[in-house]
Amino acid sequence: MSVEPPRPLVAGNWKMNGLKAQTAVLTEILAGYVPALRSRVDLAICPPATLVGRFTEMAAGSAIGIGGQDCHAKAAGAFTGDLSAEMLADMGATYVLVGHSERRQYHGETDSEVAAKALAAHRAGLVAIVCIGETKDEREAGKTLDVVRTQLAGSVPDGSTSQNLIVAYEPVWAIGTGLTPTASDVEEVHAVIRASLGALVGAEEQGRVRILYGGSVKPSNAAELMAVPNVNGALVGGASLVAADFLGIANAYHA
Ligand code: PGA
């Protein structure tokens, strides 16, 4: 059964970048999100937690969603330095990234922890953007599809739907490197993710979940990557820090 492709989303992940002065970037993005663009693509920005409240105020009424970059699995408690999905929601966030490869790599997050965080996001009413992707060694060993299937199955919690789950496929070796997989490699992985979603969200929702591609997306490659079947948008790191680049990527959807 074929369904309408989901409405695309271009989401920016600012990582540990952004001081008060960078609010000007959001101002520029807001100005560039003109009705013709808004009619074709959703936008979101995930700034550092320190700017989430400020950004939700700035973006109020604009249809640009604001998200966190991580959350704790618990709603509150003695977890110094952490923040909960409820806190992000309380600041007006609507999305949260979970299981980004930098969290998996530098904070040792496992699939089951990622699933618990995604569940926390759902509990708080946030959309969880669950990130998965293979390392260079895994790709070279021909394990990409197995890794992606395993991470997806382990990281997507029960109760996920197209309304509260977005999957981001980000090959670790493509993040921040300027390298990207070929369109046909992306197509192969996204098709496997789409197929695997059936068992996780049910046949009804399988075709509706947005699957983003991430890893060195820039204005010059966005049109090609976004045209790949089952690519329903992008998760953008470096290029999301420059308004013209972020909007240039979103404009891949501007016919
Ligand atoms: P990049 O990062 O666009 O800078 O490669 C993507 C990401 O880590 O989400």
Number of strands: 8
Question: What would CATH call the homologous superfamily?
Answer: Aldolase class I
Distance between the amino and carboxyl termini? 27 Å
Q: Which CATH class is shown?
A: Alpha Beta
Percent strand equals 15-25%
Task: Indicate how many domains the architecture comprises.
Answer: 1
- The average pLDDT score comes to 97
Query: Order of strands in the sheet with the most strands?
Result: 1-2-3-4-5-6-7-8
Q: Fill in the CATH topology.
A: TIM Barrel
- Main beta sheet: strand number and arrangement? 8 strands, parallel, barrel
CATH architecture: Alpha-Beta Barrel
**Heteromolecules bound:** 2-phosphoglycolic acid
Poorly predicted runs: none
Shape summary: globular
Provide a short characterization of the protein structure.
With 255 residues, the protein is α/β, with parallel strands linked by helices.
Explain this structure.
This protein is α/β, with parallel strands linked by helices. Helix content is 42%, strand content 15%. An eight-stranded parallel beta barrel has the order 1-2-3-4-5-6-7-8, surrounded by six helices. It is globular, with a radius of gyration of 17 Å. The model has no long low-confidence stretch (mean pLDDT 97). The structure holds 2-phosphoglycolic acid. 2-phosphoglycolic acid binds at residues 13, 170, 175-176, 214-217, 235-239.
Record keyword descriptors for this entry.
single chain, about 260 residues, alpha/beta, TIM Barrel, 8-stranded parallel beta barrel, 12 helices, 8 strands, about 40% helix, binds 2-phosphoglycolic acid
